[in-house]
Amino acid sequence: MPFWYSNSKLAWLLLPFSLVFWFISQIRRALFSLGIKTSYRAPKPVVVVGNLSVGGNGKTPVVVWLSEEIKKRGWRVGVISRGYGSKAKTYPLLVSAETDPIEGGDEPVLIAKRTGVPVVISANRRQAIELLLKHCDCDIIISDDGLQHYSLQRDIEIVVMDAKRALGNGFVLPAGPLRELPSRLKTVDFVITNGGKNRYSDALMRLVPHYAIHLKTNEKRPLSEFQSGSAIAGIGHPPRFFSMLEKLGIALIQTQGFQDHQHFDAAQLAAFPSDQPLFMTEKDAVKCQAFAQDNWWYIPVEAEIVEAEKQGEKLPHFWKKIEALVERDKNA
């Protein structure tokens, strides 16, 4: 909501509802802290990658990056996710690169395609982990989202934040964009800011596009070969995608932002010119593959993440903590 990121009177009018939201969330968290509500300790280390605010912050690229970096270090990794927007017949569901994104959810299918690691979706994180460990003897489990899912114990918490929008007006829902108060950041292990540095940054993330991929043929083409086109984005913050294309020198004739996790059909995109490329995110492409047209291209991005204070280093202190967790598990 735009008023979350401005000095709006509407936010103050909604503040009483935010106080109710905050009070309920505090009671819920306290019940877990006091042991009145039980939480699940997985048999393997769990790393939660989540958000403090709603909206697109770049969480999925972090999960992809983290999965790839863990594999490079010789450890086995699996991913669990709620699978927001999925319509599976049964849960938990093991997701692969071939899973229908309607059934498995767009982000889990994207993660499975990009990384090749096992991905399991379920609103019940314990059930997801149990199914995951049946298929893969993981050294580390990544929870895609779930920062506020206190029924799952975790070893490391990572918050991904849009560097420019940050925490907005600092209010919790619905007066602001936050699920928890800014003070929650003091208890997490790492804050990764997407697109720049702010006062919360432990690490900086830059999303780097290298080429466009044709949805029907999988042809890769350098982005420098495109001068113009149209663009769609069904992500948390569509303007970021459009701005990225314009910074690459691509003149956008027509753009349209859709809601996050939007389910597409051919009719929704029929109005875009067929004689110009139509660009979309990789997350959208997994849902449009079945009815792709000859002029449709998607833009994959690679996350580059370095320490905020020592740019050029890939979080050595973070990897030391991961290594310690793996060794702890082996010696248990």
Automatic annotation (TrEMBL):
GO terms for biological process: lipid A biosynthetic process; lipopolysaccharide core region biosynthetic process. InterPro entries: LpxK, P-loop_NTPase. It is an enzyme of class 2 (transferase). One of its GO terms (molecular function) is lipid-A 4'-kinase activity. Pathway: Glycolipid biosynthesis; lipid IV(A) biosynthesis; lipid IV(A) from (3R)-3-hydroxytetradecanoyl-[acyl-carrier-protein] and UDP-N-acetyl-alpha-D-glucosamine: step 6/6. Signal peptide: none annotated. One of its GO terms (cellular component) is plasma membrane. This is Tetraacyldisaccharide 4'-kinase. It comes from Rodentibacter trehalosifermentans. The lineage of its organism: Bacteria, Pseudomonadati, Pseudomonadota, Gammaproteobacteria, Pasteurellales.
